[in-house]
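Hello Y.,

Per our agreement to keep a running log of every chain we model this quarter, I'm adding this entry. I've kept the format consistent with earlier entries: sequence first, then predicted structure.
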Amino acid sequence: QVQLVESGGGLVQPGGSLTLSCAASGSIGSIDAMAWHRQAPGNERELVATITSGGSTNYADSVKGRFSISRDNAKNTVYLQMNSLKPEDTAVYYCKIDRRRGGFRIHNWGQGTQVTVSS
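Predicted structure for the entry above:
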């Protein structure tokens, strides 16, 4: 069984910063891509940022230049540094890992952490 535990969400004023963390534990196997998604009320879940096992990154246009994704492979952890936050960044943020174990490709999601940007 694999668990993803997210932390770092909260309330922040516009222009502020937050760093989200997501640590994977259990019988993981090998992790390929890691990603952050978000879902605002009434909206579909959207991809925010991805990072491959080799460290290549990709970002949604709405967060480019403000958000930075990184990973620590030794700790099976992915981070999302969020700067210059805007009210429209308010959402529940979910981490996702794509992994391989026993010849299978598996996706796992975190439980979500709330980020609220408001004055």
